[in-house]
Amino acid sequence: MSRLMTTHILVATLLSGTLATLCGAAERSRSLSSPEIRTALTDKIISYSPPGWADADISEVFYSDGKWIGTYYSRGPIGFSGRWIIEGNAICVTPDANAIVSKWFSGSRCRTVWRGGNDKGLSIEHLDPRQAPSGPLVVSISDLAISSR
Q: What is the CATH architecture assignment of 32-148?
């Protein structure tokens, strides 16, 4: 077998393995339905950070009464608030007019929530649409102590 043919076979084998891995990852990941989003996020705190960004961490809280509060960790923690609802199969937030995040988008921002991977964790796009090209980010979720309001 010629060296060129061996190289072509090796490249084809590597590509097919990569494609199989990517397809397998896509099969394990799925978007949540409205009821699943409500169950997963109501009275919960989610936190996430895009890779490579030291100043774009976000924590968000989704209260059962529709109140939405959060913290943007930039040059110090900056709080924000607003309202949240579920529309279609997405969680939509509308910041208060004076909230820093109201400068990132106008009106509401709706995001799909995904469940995927071997650990069945959740992921969501960053609240700031400028960070969205990095794709869904894995979130850490913790229960909210109702008395903390």
A: Beta Barrel (2.40)
